[in-house]
């Protein structure tokens, strides 16, 4: 097995298990709020003789759900910088390991108080904030442009994580208790860390088992490999912040993040409120869109990579088409969902599947576009993008908890329509801005810093040589 395939498999599994950590609370919290109180006792005491009660208000529920993303943004930019300087391998290991440990104690935090649970989720957010930038840093050093879209499908391991978490979480909550929906993902993270340390390295040059054939292939296909090896340079911040293609990625990512966060956090509650679906059935039904997203991302990225290799479409065209698919289609599906009646479960589920599945095109869209703009600074740029785009993770759950009163026996269809109208509008705006400003070409400022350093170095060597000659004379 090649080193790149190994990296891809472990990257895919990493995104899967970390997404399980993120989303396990969303299904477990339905069990908590339904007062499945004996699950806490069964988890903590084998005799199950004592009954413990957990009662959270709408406000407290919003705080716990939003706590992860309230801290997630803090480590995204530092995570990219740390990965650029010290390597993505160690940064990813530390982040995933800490989040796994935190997941193991999260049930105790929920049992103690919603604010203790929120504190643990804040720790998880800090730990996992480094994962995407660090992986982008590794991708810039291991994956060529023609394989980039295909590799970015590993990021949709998160979809598999949801596919497993939602149905299995529903079963665990129903039969064993909601704490197990949090503990199992934590254990999987710890196991993943062992394989990551054993089989992954920061660069092809550091890999002791890479074949000469694969190493030669990477030397010939990676753009400006000499630049990628220079990890000490600081990104040209002014050029980055004044780059229209960079801001196009920011807006596209913001729209995608708002929609993704709103759907992943709120769909279990929406299905329970509108269609009166129980937790176990809810988890199974909501795993279907995530499975569709994963399968679609594999098929779509393969088609786009083939079009790129055969030069049927430019990189910019591929990126813009992909962003259009993963923003316009979900927006239209959400608008359709607003018009579906409460008795049309299967039509509603079909629109939800369309909405989530079309998001799989992001692997060939803004996600890959970041590496296009600057392979060398990919980790840092992704950290910047995701730092800016953390706002949906904080604002969306707070907004939904304000619009939709979960603990009141009222008609909620109109309230959920407001939530979906907002998400659809953000999708449409982000799509328009990206089509207007987006580009798939490497930016001039990527090599500008390198050239300046090389020029200064050459001048310094010339000066030293001349000084030595003068001394000899």
UniProtKB/TrEMBL annotation:
Alphabetical list of InterPro entries matching this protein: MFS, MFS_dom, MFS_Na/Anion_cotransporter, MFS_trans_sf
Keywords: Membrane, Signal, Transmembrane, Transmembrane helix
GO CC term, one of those recorded: membrane
Protein localization: Membrane
Regions crossing the membrane: 63-83, 90-109, 115-134, 155-174, 180-201, 237-259, 279-300, 321-340, 346-371, 383-404, 416-437
Residues in Major facilitator superfamily (MFS) profile domain copies: 3-442
The UniProt record lists the keyword Transmembrane: yes
Coiled-coil boundaries: none
GO MF, one annotated term: transmembrane transporter activity
Signal sequence coordinates: 1-18
Keyword field contains Membrane: yes
Mode of membrane association: Multi-pass membrane protein
Gene Ontology biological process terms from the UniProt entry: monoatomic anion transport
One Pfam family cited in the UniProt record for this chain: MFS_1
Protein name (database record): Putative permease of the major facilitator superfamily protein
Organism phylogeny: Eukaryota, Metazoa, Ecdysozoa, Arthropoda, Hexapoda
